[in-house]
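We now fix the convention by which a protein and its fold are recorded. The integers have meaning only within a learned vocabulary of local backbone shapes. A record is reproduced here so that you can trace the correspondence yourselves:
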Amino acid sequence: MDQLRTDDPKAPSGDFTLSDDPFALFSAWMRDAEAAEPEDPNAMALATAGSDGLPDVRMVLLKGFDAHGFVFYTNVQSAKGEELAQNPQAALVLHWKSLRRQIRARGPVTPVTPEEADAYFESRRRESRLGAIASQQSRPLADRATLMATVTELASRYEDGPIPRPEHWTGFRISPVSLEFWQNGDYRLHDRVRFTRAGDGWSRSRLYP
């Protein structure tokens, strides 16, 4: 695989279009983003659509990835949770402005195992765990004071003891059938490469910008 690191984060880092492994390339670009982006290099736009077919999109955080796909966590009673229950497919975009790079992916979505969800929930800050229980995500809220009162009540209830993961909070894994890497070029002559799943491997094609 080509060397992907560079001292200048805005400079091309080798001919990435020669890579045969999209996840190795993704990992390298993510390392570059973690070194260059000032905030939330793992922020991604997540697009879903329910049974009505109307697409919906929002920003979430990528919390893990490997050759099996990309993992994020959410309340399954939220709008995106309900849409995924109706239509378990999604698309994502990560855009790193400082690097002038973008990655798109799409594919079927499956829940993570309870063990994976438990492990990640336990790793979160205590306040975030309380918030996950308190929030009826995407439901109408009378005022912020109502939400904060629920958080305060939960903090008193659990004190310093363990906080169990609520059943309505878990993770999802997008297993991509396609991955597209985009890198800015002068005069809008960008580089684009799309990887498409082909059996147990991937096919690769360069695209016009």
User: Anything to note?
Assistant: The helical segments are 22-36, 79-86, 114-123, 126-134, 144-158.
